[in-house]
Specification:
The chain is an alpha+beta fold. It folds into two domains: about 150 residues, Aminopeptidase; about 120 residues, Aminopeptidase. It is built from ten helices and 16 strands. A hairpin with a 3-residue loop joins strand 11 and strand 12. The longest helix is centred in the N-terminal third of the chain and has 18 residues.
Length: about 325
């Protein structure tokens, strides 16, 4: 395979023997999370033709890109909520512009890809400002093709919860929160709710989420609301990074919905449980790439204090030339 080496830069395709180097880089990057570690990415390796890239300046690794190829599209990465170039502290804007140019030349020389689908990591997941890639997208005539809107709470200064609350103090006295409870019980509640309301299944099967939980026990947690008889009324699965607590799944039973058990749980998570993090991210409230807004869903998140953060997707046409 031809590798690009102008100006002492090299682009190399990831291979499993580089896992330790890859994971170490994720840990020290400005915008990587546990989702970018190979033990997370590779749980569904059978679904994606991995073509992740590693960028070197001489012998120093200065960027990585989780990616795969689907037909004639180089994607970063459809198996992940967000991705794009992961960068350490030292990599500069000028270098990122150079890396974008080299990446396009690499793809033209070594693949059949005719376009790049690029999903940058939203700023709330950055440990230090890291939007050089957004500027590089602009310079390379990238087109915004999806804008999904999520709702996030600043946990160190949350907005007050608004609207009529259904939970009385008497109701709360009959409830308790269980951390890392029974995933199988919660998954049956989740599957029933998603099927009945949206006619869909969870992205992860119970076997997959159990596998990932075992691999990342401090990053993936289940919080359930149970009554005094031990009956699970609902819960949330959280993906926890250094900066952000992301709500991956939530569901309640009919009784849980009747008494607004999730309100009780969210109040605890937002105001007490994760005050050491910066944001609570409820996840997206849109369909059709952002063209349809679920107004009822986002209104609920906004009532709890969530405000907009966008998850964008861009496309670069490899048949055109970037503006210098």
């Amino acid at each position: 395979m031809k590798e690009q080496q102008p100006h002492a830069y090299t682009i190399t395709r990831y291979t499993p023997d580089k896992q330790a180097e890859w994971d170490s880089f994720v840990e020290r990057s400005r915008n990587g999370t546990f989702l970018h570690r190979r033990n997370y990415m590779d749980y569904h390796a059978d679904r994606f033709a991995d073509h992740s890239l590693m960028f070197y300046r001489e012998a120093e690794l200065i960027a990585i890109l989780p990616a795969h190829i689907k037909e004639e599209r180089f994607c970063s990465h459809n198996g992940l909520t967000y991705g794009g170039l992961l960068l350490p502290q030292r990599t500069t804007t000028a270098e990122v512009l150079e890396l974008f140019n080299l990446m396009q030349e690499y793809l033209r020389c070594n693949t059949a890809a005719t376009s790049i689908i690029y999903k940058p990591t939203p700023h709330i997941y950055h440990s230090y400002p890291c939007e050089e890639d957004l500027y590089a997208l602009f310079r390379n005539n990238a087109t915004l093709v999806e804008r999904k809107i999520s709702s996030a709470i600043a946990l160190k200064n949350p907005l007050p919860i608004s609207g009529r609350r259904k939970l009385t103090e008497n109701t709360k006295s009959h409830l308790h929160i269980v951390e890392d409870g029974d995933f199988a019980t919660f998954w049956s509640i989740l599957e029933e709710r998603l099927q009945s309301k949206y006619d869909v299944a969870p992205v992860h099967s119970i076997d997959e989420i159990t596998l990932l939980k075992n691999r990342f026990p401090e990053n993936i947690k289940l919080f359930c609301v149970a009554d005094n008889n031990g009956n699970t009324l609902g819960g949330v699965v959280l993906f926890i990074t250094d900066n952000v607590v992301h709500m991956q799944y939530s569901a309640t039973t009919e009784e849980g919905r009747r008494i607004s058990a999730l309100d009780y749980l969210y109040e605890n998570i937002i105001n007490s449980r994760f005050t050491d993090r910066d944001y609570f991210d409820f996840g997206i409230s849109v369909e059709d790439g952002g063209h349809y807004l679920n107004t009822g869903l986002i209104a609920y998140k906004e009532r709890l204090g969530g405000r907009a953060v966008v998850y964008d997707t861009y496309i670069i046409d490899l048949n055109t030339t970037a503006n210098d």
